[in-house]
Each structure stands twice: as structure tokens, then as C-alpha cells.
Here is the input.
Amino acid sequence: MAAAILRRVTHTTAAAAAAATPRVSPLPLLARGISDSTDTITVETSVPFMNHIVDPPSRSVTTTPHELLTFFRDMSVMRRSEIAADSLYKSKLIRGFCHLYDGQEAVAVGMEAAITRRDAIITAYRDHCLYLARGGDLVSAFAELMGRRDGCSRGKGGSMHFYKRDANFFGGHGIVGAQVPLGCGIAFAQRYRKEGTVTFDLYGDGAANQGQLFEALNMAALWKLPVILVCENNHYGMGTAEWKASKSPAYYKRGDYVPGLKVDGMDVLAVKQACKFAKDHALENGPIILEMDTYRYHGHSMSDPGSTYRTRDEIAGIRQERDPIERVKKLILAHDFATAQELKDMEKEIRKQVDDAIAKAKESPMPDASELFTNVYVNDCGLESFGVDRKVLRTVLP
Amino acid sequence: MFEALREALIEEMKLDPTVCVMGEDVGHYGGSYKVTKGLAEMFGDLRVLDTPIAENSFTGMGIGAAMKGLRPVVEGMNMGFLLLAYNQISNNCGMLHYTSGGQFKIPVVIRGPGGVGRQLGAEHSQRLESYFQSIPGLQMVACSTPYNAKGLMKAAIRSENPVVLFEHVLLYNMKEKIPDEEYICCLEEAEMVRPGEHVTILTYSRMRYHVMQAAKTLVNKGYDPEVIDIRSLKPFDLHTIGNSIKKTHRVLIVEECMRTGGIGASLRSAIIDNFWDYLDAPIMCLSSQDVPTPYAATLEDATVVQPAQIVAAVEQICQ
Here is the structure.
């Protein structure tokens, strides 16, 4: 049942996507049948888009009850998973670095709603929810976090290295900013092969000052690569506030000759609208920057309490005023697409799913010792791993 | 040699439409060493991409394109410039296949001229073999003749693994007759240059020519050196090297890398680990001095190994 609920049918990207064929994914808790409704409603985004050398898209976004409920469900799964990961980390089942995405779910979910699985997404290390949005399953995600054999990278990548090739999700990168040129390379390949698809190249406000970003942007603009640079601006680069790191925190304007939009990243409909607009723009005119104004409730990673450089009031305030899940919930309740009790039941069901997935992931064993040497090279020459002395290196682990 | 490299590129680009070239001045300028001359006219601007001067990001772009299914050949105008792309080469190129659990392969070729040239100055005379050596997931080869340049370039392009192909600034104008038929050199094999009985001399790239020059003198003096061009810098071809050591029992390594942490240092360890019982004398390793390459001609000559030193070393080993 977990798999059924999480299965996402590929979207089309026609302008009337909201009125497209109803999707298969069942929402069994909602007995009233509203979940399958494709009657469109129009909602205004929370704030207008701020724009830089491009006319912004309209503030009015069309959506359907089904879509809103899907947003609610997907974001709740992500929120629940990240909180669960927090507990797992504190119980020392997840080690090393763990960067959590709670608060930022609207970016992942809104983006996914605007594109297809043939479009590519690449991001940095805050990648668990992007993986889930791209169709990754909970068991593989938790198994990877715990370093088990059934993880999405066979336990060898860890939190910062989630990938899903068949869904065109390119990871999962630990070094700040290094993924931006990679994303432009993916877009280059898309243009080279005339695929008609785009790449969403995500980075943070901290990475926005990396030189390689501007180098890559220059090349993308020169060759009109279909890449969309998405700055997930959560206002803090680890412990450094954006105004302390960037002379110009208007990241959507920093492309200079590249157009940009600033989007309320906590409003999933605004994200969806902007991403759809950006995809059309990129296919016609080359790169565009989207700055998602978002927020992370956790610290930079699990080793950062997140309160030494910002006040608890600030965090609580954002949670109160701008939480993405609450916003969608209010919209659903206001339009009477579900009752509060039904949504609560849904949340309970999701909690159970996540717990079940964790239990299943815990059963997965550690990778076999021989896995140390597999996948270092593509198995071309019949060798699995070789050092300078061309011997297949094997070691006996105690 | 540049024509051989170019021929290899043309042949592979004709065979496989996903092979593309990117680098500074590779397109309309024809390449700073003419390796890509004429390719842009043949294959178009997208397949032979002139990049801005941004090594870090165009190497990253090449790697991203490889993740998505292309087979880019990334040129560093001088190998030393690729130090700017070290993060991309190490973390993304070398490690992505592993950290993704085998999902993505990175079939890039990273190539460019390195080595000490004619008074090019310290920053343009670097030998990056030693810096890239430890990166897991990379393969490294060094070409030294037009024949093996073409063969290794073709093999590198066809390999599913990332390969760094080290060319040498002073060898581009070498001429040699090479076969018309298609051929490929094995990436992991060493080349027997001159069979012999008394001592095994292991070398690669430009130093091969210094060794062969020294060999003439040595032959006149009555020695019979066996010269092997190791070609594959990572992994070493210990099969060929081992067979040679089992025959001669004496080893001299002649390289252009620095003494500290160079290819010779690793090769020496590998030989000691595997062939200790076969050695009759300590392994000698002649490397460049651990100094920035000076501009003055006499000083530059003293930085690298010269044939006279090789002769003296062989005489010492064979005592």
C-alpha cells in the first residue's frame, strides 16, 4: 500500500496540465470521491513574482482538488520522513552528515508538478526529499541513510549521495556548488540530443557565491542551454546569514544578463507556476534563474542546532505564518475538499507508512565486504578494482 | 603526433555521434597544438565546443554530459590548468560511479599536454600524473609515439571509465609512419621498446627518448638494457614489468615526475611488494628535481633527467 500511495504517474507539461487526465494514485482515506475530481479552481499566489529582465507569469494558478490533496500527501510524507530521520540520527542509526529538508518541501513538490520524469533534476546534499519527489521509495531512502545494502546507492553513498537514474535524478553532491556545472552539462547533453527536455539545477544561497556557478551560467547563456538554475534561498549558508555572505542577496538578479524570478518557495502553487514558466522559457531562450524564498526548520545539518545564528522566535514565526503544508491544508479546508478529520487520518496513515518503511529498512543487512571494491570502475577489463599494481585488491575484513 | 591524435578523434567522432570535444580554442582556432584542427568544420560547433576560460566548470559540464550519455573529450590547454578542475576530476569524475552505486558511468577522456617544455616557466611545465594518481576510479595513460598516441586515444574514448591521457608538449611534432588500418592500443598494457638482458629501464612519455639516447651509449659500452615504456600510469602493467624483472633482476625507473610522490615512487613500491625476491640490486629511480621549473635553459635542463645521468645510473646498478 505504501508503494501504491507513493507511485507518481508521469505528468504531461501541457499548459492545461491541471485539467489533464486523472491520475491513478488512490487516496483511500477520502471516501467522498472528491480526490478524483479534476474541476479546476484558480488560486492566487501569496505574493506576486519579482522579476529581473523577464515578464513574470501570472499570479493566478489553476489547480484541482486532486492535485492539492496530492501536494498535501507528498509534502506530509517528506515532512514525516525528515523528522523520522532526525530521530534515527539521534539514535545513531544514521551517522556522518545528515541535512534535512523540512520546511522546504514545497520546492520539491511544486517543481515535480510542473515537469516530467524526462526532465532532469540535480541538487546538492539536501537531497532526500528530491529523491522522494522523483519517485524514490521510502525503504531505499532510509536504507541508504543507514548504510544498508538495499539503499539507493547500495549503502555506499550515504545521505549526500542519493541518485535515481531512471527518473533523471542526478543527485546528491557533497561539495558546495560543484553540481552547478554538472547540471549545465546535463542540459548540454539534452540540447545535443535535441531531447526537448530541461534540467533543474538546484543550489543554495551559500553556493550562490561560488565562481563555478557564474562560469557555468556564462556558458549556459552563450550556448542557450535548457537549464534552470534554482537557488533554494533558505537565508543561511550553514551558520552565516545571507546578508553576511553576499553583497547582493537578490540572487535572482545576480545572473546579470540571465533573466530571473523570485518565488515564494513556501507556496507550492507559486513554485509550480514558476517552474512551468521557467521550463517553457528555457526551451526557447536558454537559462533562467529561479530564486525560491524558503526556510529550513532544522539547522544546516544534524550537528547544527540551528539556533545560535537565528532566534527561536524567527523559526516559530515562519512555521506559524508560512508553513507549506499548513497553507495547502487551509486551502483544502477552505474549499471543502476534505474535512479536518480526513486530513488528520491521512497524516496518521503516512506516519505509519514511514514507520513501516523504516522498520523494513532496518532489516536490510550491511553491504557485503566485497562491495568495497565494486563500482570503482565500470567492469570493463574484468577487474573490479585495481590500485597501481593492477592486482585486484582484496582485503579480509575482520 | 598531433596528426595521429587528430586522426583518432576524427575516426571516433565519425563512428559514434555521442563523442564530442570541448576545451579552449579547440574549435575555430584549431587547438593550440593543432590536435583539433579542422574538426569544427567537419562536425560543427556543438560537437567541437569552444569554451570560455573556465576549466572548473567546463570540466564539470563534460562530466555532467557524460552522466547523461555523451562521451566528451575534455581538453586542458595545458595539463597544469586542469588543477583548477581538480575538484570536478576527483569528486565527480572519479567517484560518481561508486557513490551512485553503479548507476552513472562517466566515460570522459581528459587530455592535454604536460611536462617540461622549452623554457615555458614553472606554471606551464607541470606534471600532473602524480597529483591524479590517488584518485580512485580514474585511469591514466601517457602516450609517447604517434602510433601509441592514436591507439591510446581511441581506446580511451571507447572506455567506459574516465581516462586521463597525458600528452607531452615537446612530442607533438614527432613523425612516424602508422598503419592505415584501424588499430587500438590496450589501455593497461606497457610497451616493450628494446628487449635486453642486463637491466630493466622503465620510463614513459618524453623520457623514453632520453632513455633510448642513453641506450645507444650503453650499447657501445657493452651493456644490454631492456627498455619498457610503461604507458599505463594507473594501473601499472605489472605483468610485462614483472616478466622483465624476472629476467634482468635490476630495475631503473626514469621519469619526468618530481621525486616526491611521483609515478616512480609508486612504481618502486609496487615492484618491491611484488618482485622483491627477483631483485639483485636496489631499485634506482631517476626523477625530476623537487623544484619549480626554472626559466633559464641550463637550469631547466638540470631539472629533468638527462641521458648522461641514465648512463651513469645503469653503470652503477650493473656493478
Summary: The longest helix of chain A spans residues 65-90. Residues 368-397 of chain A form one domain.
